[in-house]
Design goal:
It contains 4 helices and 4 strands; from the N terminus they run ααααββββ. It has helices spanning about 5-25, 30-60, 70-75, 80-90; strands at about 95, 105-110, 115-120, 125-130. The radius of gyration is 21 Å and the shape is elongated.
């Protein structure tokens, strides 16, 4: 298991427990109430951002974006699938077997250029931009 995964599974709950214990030791039950309120607020902020991203993505066709070239320029290894969906404002078209790792998604723009992204455990591992060949008869 990677260190980052270990920290997200064990570190965050451990940090929350330490925060509550310190709040209780310093301020009693009032401190526990404030610490719990802060943790709930943090969770609600993340949930609200996720809902806003998905609300915007629901308004667009699956796998469509404005510019594949611009998406290609903005991508970096390690960004989350939610971050890519926020950039494209659309859900990607699934190109791999459902519920299997790695997950492969494709976003296509109006000029038939497309970006194919490969995610492993929700993190972007690699991507490829494909642009259609331009012939002389093509306007």
């Amino acid at each position: 298991m990677k260190f980052q995964q270990l920290m997200s599974r064990v570190g965050v709950p451990l940090l929350a427990l330490i925060l509550v214990a310190m709040a209780y030791r310093s301020y009693g039950w009032n401190g526990v109430a404030v610490a719990a309120s802060l943790m709930v607020m943090w969770a609600l902020l993340h949930f609200n951002r996720l809902m806003q991203v998905l609300k915007r993505a629901a308004r667009r066709p699956i796998g469509y974006l404005d510019s594949a070239v611009m998406l290609n320029a903005k991508l970096k290894p390690g960004v989350t699938l939610m971050h890519v969906v926020a950039l494209t404002k659309a859900l990607g078209e699934l190109k791999s077997v459902k519920d299997r790792q790695p997950e492969v998604y494709r976003w296509t723009d109006g000029s038939e250029s497309h970006v194919t992204c490969e995610f492993f455990d929700g993190k972007l591992m690699k991507w490829q931009l494909v642009r259609p060949e331009v012939t002389e008869d093509t306007p």
